[in-house]
């Protein structure tokens, strides 16, 4: 009871007052420590236990796995096997989580084999966990094979397979399995919607959301978040407002993830005013200390080129008692870079550790390099790179282009086959008048057949999404569009000649 109420002190006192402690009272303390994330306390108590049963071992294995100490979870499982006191399906649930987090497919196959040998595959939860583990390790074929071998399949097992296909980008297979489900719930619908949204098929995701609502299923927090992200992806404010309206009519309080997605949707759909209005309403309701919401709103201002407003909001955030985190500084440094606020950005970077107790990481150095590079302060870029507290990685090299010929050789040795670093380096050479060096970089990009990532624009006409990129010749209406563009260009020239 004390642990359920998060009252650690009273729980310890009650436990200490027990005159004769048995394995059940010890297990109660182990379970309480585990629920509160006090893994060191749980571990110490476990080692002092005069007697342990299977529940004691399983509690520790699951606690370590969920707490991210995957190696310790696997070691405890191996100790349990050597203890020769037996195993249960619950023993394997923690081990499967550990396999998943460390991405060890070989270990996963060994655990699966032991589950088969012990005859635990009839346990639905464990079987679904095996399907989930294979799919999250990228082995969807093995996940499907095991799924087909299951004698009994509940909605969890079906949803797990749908999630596996969707996560792997095999949306046709995901939809096929989804349509075959004998029973569906809100989680299975949300899983499919999320898969389409992650794959960039936003309109399809929104249409599935409509099917879900028409079918009488109630969307949850994850459903709304996925749909709002889909609307933001294609900048469809029409669909975004429809989802927002449905959210208002739904009788539950949205969490911070949904509210952040709502702000982000309005911002990316071009309505910064509505994004700010949603944010202000949240503050009026008293929710003022969630860092993620502040980050989302500051990012929205940054994306719209409102660097000074972003800085003012950052100061308001700090003044109100909300603690900025690493993400906050990545966003605000980017805002300073985009808006030419060089001195402000450098001051923020230098005050991160002392003023806000946030240790600068690689992403912050990337932002700083970009900030200085845009200002043409190339010598300072080199100084910062040379004095970094960790080794300069590929992302930092891409951001800075390394400024000099010596670093071009470093770029050549990078693993990724993109042109980003060379594009940035070429831009630096052009900025300082070294056109020949810029051309060398472009020739290298062309020789290696690397392509700069293209920007794409979308427009929604009669519920049909049209996408365009630079020099696009694939659209079926390209002749008409280029004809209109030519007329507009001629009209501009005529107007200029008159003036």
Strand content: under 5%
Residues in helices, as a percent range: over 70%
Q: Calculate the mean pLDDT score and round it.
A: 80
Q: Pick out the low-confidence regions.
A: 401-420
* Count of beta strands: 2
| Basic shape | globular
Largest sheet: 2 strands, antiparallel
InterPro entries: PPR_At4g14850-like_plant, PPR_rpt, TPR-like_helical_dom_sf
Keywords: Repeat
PPR repeats: 22-56, 154-184, 185-219, 290-324, 325-355
GO molecular function, one term: RNA binding
What keyword list fits this structure?
499 residues, mainly alpha, two-stranded antiparallel ribbon, 28 helices, 2 strands, globular, RNA binding
What's the SSE blueprint?
Layout: H1 8-17, H2 23-35, H3 39-48, H4 54-66, H5 70-83, H6 89-102, H7 105-118, H8 124-136, H9 140-149, H10 155-167, H11 171-180, H12 186-198, H13 202-214, H14 221-233, H15 237-249, H16 256-268, H17 272-284, H18 291-303, H19 307-319, H20 326-339, H21 342-356, H22 362-374, H23 378-386, H24 394-400, H25 405-412, H26 420-431, H27 435-447, E1 456-461, E2 464-469, H28 478-498
Antiparallel strand pairs: 1-2
Helix pairs in contact: 1-2, 2-3, 2-4, 3-4, 4-5, 4-6, 5-6, 6-7, 6-8, 8-9, 8-10, 9-10, 10-11, 10-12, 11-12, 12-13, 12-14, 13-14, 14-15, 14-16, 16-17, 16-18, 17-18, 18-19, 18-20, 19-20, 20-21, 20-22, 21-22, 22-23, 22-24, 24-26, 26-27
Give an account of the 3D structure.
- The chain is mainly alpha-helical.
- 70% of the residues lie in helices and 2% in strands.
- The protein is built from 28 helices and two strands.
- It has a two-stranded antiparallel ribbon.
- Mean pLDDT is 80; it is low at 401-420.
